[in-house]
Design a protein that fits this description.
The complex is a heterodimer of chains A (352) and B (447). Chain A starts with a helix and ends in a 22-residue tail after the last helix. Chain A has one domain: P-loop containing nucleotide triphosphate hydrolases (Rossmann fold, 3-Layer(aba) Sandwich). Helix content of chain A is 47%, strand content 13%. Chain B is α/β, with parallel strands linked by helices and 447 residues long. In chain B, strand 6, helix 10 and strand 7 form a beta-alpha-beta unit. Classes of the chains: A alpha/beta (352), B alpha/beta (447). The interface between A and B is medium-sized, with 13 and 14 residues. The complex binds adenosine-5'-diphosphate (ADP), iron/sulfur cluster and magnesium ion (MG).
Chain lengths: 352, 447
């Protein structure tokens, strides 16, 4: 009996292995043919999950969308998941239009079809918005948890198999829900978008606390600060000093630029609206940096008092800086410092 | 190879876990309180489990009682699910209140909100206010995590005071009774009736709020009382204080529902003093009632002395019940107190008073060890160290009483799964007689 069984068994085992190899081969072939122009992409076999955090209105969505756009130009299949009840993360990837959110669909109580929550945007970027409650009601944090769990349940990621997923997440990591993307099995790398304002750095510091907590249980690690709206050397210095104090690194600086605002008015990313601008090139550089950045670590968040003391240490220097600026303003030959922010493509000076 | 199983030492204490606590959540207490008042329709704004869980965990455990026409499976519930957590449950609540008013007959609707809407911050107040014109309605924010069943009782009455009660002219001779928590104090129905009957003999109009058909009327007349009587060392205190602040009603506190002649006389005396009643008729009443109950105590004298003279006893109960029973058995029957375990989570600030009642006010050279503990495991471990023959506790101790060397176990406190309790009680002048009936009947006989 056994004697007969054995060859049959080993045959079937072989068959299974064979199937496996064919599938894998086919998959890789697929990737190769899709992105023949960018061979290096084919070796990305594992999905790159990146979460971008930051305080509300600081430029997360703008930065995320431009990074997504830049990466899609490079031939990557990108999915951007907006985790903000505002649901406007992917607007500039979709002509300024809102897309139906995961939670809207869930709320309708009807069967959810994947094409109802994954929408194609600029250059084939897959756009998803978790959605959330109206301001002031319900629990947005739970909304994010539910939406991400639903994406997992529906095997959305497997179905679309993007190379890169960017989670654009609101917040201060105020509760467990906003920490969802950095918990085990969601994102591996985290960036924070921050200006040199104290509240914005405070949000980054809170993010560091969240990362530290979850790092013990396989959560995401930190990969860098993206300084946004950085137009003056002092803005850069503040962020650099914050990074040094929290044992973190800086992924890049993005200046404030009118190009961005203009593109947004057209419902487009800078990359789409003004591909030849310096700002677009700057976003491309940032995207390349992010995709090649393998460094992941646990930053050292400051305690509440330490953070306050650190911020205070900057007050005097900022005061002095403002005084100098006022003096310059009254001088007959005006420096354009004051209007720096408003000038289109002030980025020029910044591209590194 | 045989696996080595590490033996757990008997008296290991696990401070971070609690085995079978003897109460439910704050929502449960408010729910019981609502159901205890006839004509109140509770509307649960919570998950479905909150309602059905309390049917088993609070009502059945409170002497195998059902929830009544508005309790248990008949209770309207918003049945909150994920969707309401994320987007808020106000709409659902609005629709639930509307249909409840249409479908459920009642004198007062009470929205009780549980853990979920408290976390997501539903604006229950404004939703409830929309219905104020249509029906008498109140809301009670009773997130389960605010505390235990006893807390729910306070929260319910605080809501009633804030949202329903208005100042009324004082009605002479009207007194309210507080401190008896429906279902959680398993004798609530009988206790309140017995106390009412005893106090009525003073010519008082006694508002026991619960059990009577005039539920809403009873609530509304609370501010007209001349005096509030709190029959617990801590339950109902907050309510009485709030009524004093808002309506100026004075209150007196007794350490529990009185059991037997001595404690009932103390109640009568304190009440008549507080109300300045003429002493002569009060003294006459006391003499008459005491004589009657002591005459009846003589009937059980023989069986008690012949079979079981002066046994040690232990009590496991809520503070008020424990004090009442321990004082009666020690002071009036001559039993010897061994351990008194108080399992209701009495707040720290109320413990001293209870200790005084259980030490100084026991007329016996033997003083009990008084333990405040709600953990069934530790309660068991403590009872094992005792040497009582008689154990007055919850039904949880019933099947294992012999492990503690106890020959007799009588369920006197929550939970009472092994005893149906409808009208029975140990309160008032005759209450002690009924307690002795229950204890002695366990060992006399068998034929
Ligand atoms: N580098 C920039 N230059 C000019 N405007 C910017 C820049 N970054 C962000 N903005 C503008 O700031 C506003 C908020 O940005 P957004 O990306 O929506 O923030 P968030 O997603 O963090 O809430 C938008 O109007 C956006 O166009
Ligand atoms: S603890 Fe909260 S969730 Fe549990 S039954 Fe009580 S109210 Fe409901
Ligand atoms: Mg955004």
């Amino acid at each position: 009996m056994r004697l007969y069984l054995r060859p049959i068994l080993s045959l079937s085992v072989r068959a299974i292995f064979a199937c496996f190899f064919i599938n894998k081969y086919q998959a890789d072939y697929y990737r190769l043919s899709l992105k023949s122009a960018h061979f290096e992409v084919a070796i990305v076999t594992k999905i790159r999950n990146i979460a971008i955090y930051g305080k509300g209105g600081i430029g997360k969505s703008t930065t995320s969308s431009n990074i997504s756009a830049a990466l899609s130009e490079e031939g990557y299949k990108v999915m951007q998941i907006g985790c903000d009840p505002k649901s406007d993360s992917t607007n500039t990837l979709r002509g300024g239009r809102f897309v139906p959110t995961v939670l809207d669909k869930l709320r309708s109580g009807k069967r959810i079809e994947t094409n109802e929550i994954v929408h194609e945007g600029f250059n084939g970027i897959l756009c998803v918005e978790t959605g959330g409650p109206e301001p002031g009601v319900g629990c947005a944090g739970r909304g994010i948890i539910t939406a991400i769990e639903l994406l997992k349940q529906k095997k959305i990621i497997e179905e679309f198999s993007p190379d890169i997923i960017i989670y654009d997440v609101l917040g201060d990591v105020v509760c467990g829900g906003f920490a969802m993307p950095i918990r085990e099995g969601v994102a591996e790398q985290v960036y924070t978008v921050s200006s040199s304002d104290f509240m914005s750095l405070y949000a980054s510091n809170n993010l560091f606390k969240g990362i530290k907590k979850y790092s013990k249980s396989g959560g995401a690690l930190f990969s860098g600060i993206i300084g946004n709206s950085i137009n003056l050397p002092i803005n850069e210095e503040i962020i650099q000093d914050f990074a040094a104090n929290t044992k973190s690194t800086i992924a890049g600086f993005v200046p404030r630029s009118l190009t961005v605002a203009k593109a947004e008015l057209q419902g487009k990313t800078t990359i789409e609206a003004d591909p030849d601008s310096d700002q677009a090139e700057l976003y491309r550089n940032l995207a390349r940096k992010i995709i090649s950045n393998e460094s992941r670590y646990v930053p050292a968040p400051l305690g509440t008092d330490e953070l306050k003391a650190w911020a205070e240490s900057w007050y005097d220097r900022l005061l002095q800086h403002n005084k100098n600026q006022e003096q310059q303003d009254t001088e007959p030959v005006k420096s354009d410092l004051k209007y720096y922010e408003l000038k289109p493509d002030s980025a020029k000076a910044k591209v590194k | 190879m045989a696996a080595v199983i590490e033996e757990r030492p008997e008296d290991v204490i696990y401070p971070e876990v609690m085995e079978a606590p003897r109460y439910s959540c704050a929502l449960a207490g408010a729910y019981s309180t609502a159901v205890g008042i006839y004509g109140v329709v509770p509307i649960l704004h919570s998950g479905l489990g909150c309602g059905i869980g309390q049917l088993f965990g609070q009502f059945y455990a409170g002497g195998q009682n059902a929830g009544g026409p508005q309790g248990g499976t008949s209770t309207p519930c918003s049945g909150l699910v994920e969707e309401h957590v994320i987007f808020g449950g106000e709409d659902k609540l609005r629709r639930l209140i509307k249909s409840s008013i249409e479908l459920m007959q009642g004198d007062l609707y009470a929205v009780l909100s549980g853990c979920v809407p408290s976390l997501t911050g539903d604006d229950i107040e404004s939703v409830v206010k929309e219905f104020r014109e249509q029906a008498p309605i109140i809301y009670v924010k009773t997130a389960g995590f605010l505390g235990n069943s006893y807390e729910g009782y306070e929260l319910f009455f605080e809501a009633v005071i804030d949202q329903l009660l208005n100042k009324l002219p004082i009605k002479k001779g009207l007194v309210n009774i507080f401190g008896v928590v429906p279902y959680q104090h398993i004798w609530w129905k009988g206790n309140l009736r017995a106390i009412k009957e005893d106090l009525q003999k003073l010519g008082l109009d006694v508002n026991i709020i619960f059990t009577e058909f005039s539920g809403l009327e009873n609530l509304i007349k609370i501010p007209a009382a001349e005096l509030n009587i709190v029959l617990s060392p801590w339950n109902g205190q907050r309510v009485a204080k709030k009524l004093e602040e808002k309506f100026g009603t004075p209150f007196i506190t007794l350490p529990g529902v009185p059991v037997g002649p001595k404690q009932t006389t103390r109640l009568i005396q304190e009440v008549s003093q507080a109300l300045n009643l003429p002493t002569e008729p009060v003294d006459e009443l006391i003499a008459r009632e005491e004589r009657h109950s002591y005459r009846f105590e003589e009937y059980f004298g023989d069986v008690m002395i012949l079979a079981f003279p002066q046994p040690y006893f232990s009590v496991v109960a809520d503070a008020g019940t424990a004090v009442g029973i321990a004082q009666f058995l020690t002071n009036e029957v001559g039993y010897l107190p061994d351990k008194v375990i108080i399992d209701d989570g009495t707040p720290e600030e109320n413990r001293e008073e209870i200790l005084r009642e259980l030490k100084e006010n026991l007329e016996c050279v033997v003083k009990p060890e008084v333990i405040f503990d709600e953990d069934s495991h530790r309660i068991r471990e403590n009872l094992k160290k005792g040497n009582s023959l008689v154990l007055l506790a919850s039904s949880l101790e019933g099947p294992i009483a012999s492990e503690f060397g106890c020959v007799i176990h009588v369920t006197v406190s929550f939970p009472s799964y092994n005893r149906l309790i409808l009208d029975h009680n140990y309160a008032g002048y005759r209450g002690g007689l009924r307690l002795m009936e229950d204890i002695v009947s366990k060992y006399c006989g068998p034929l």
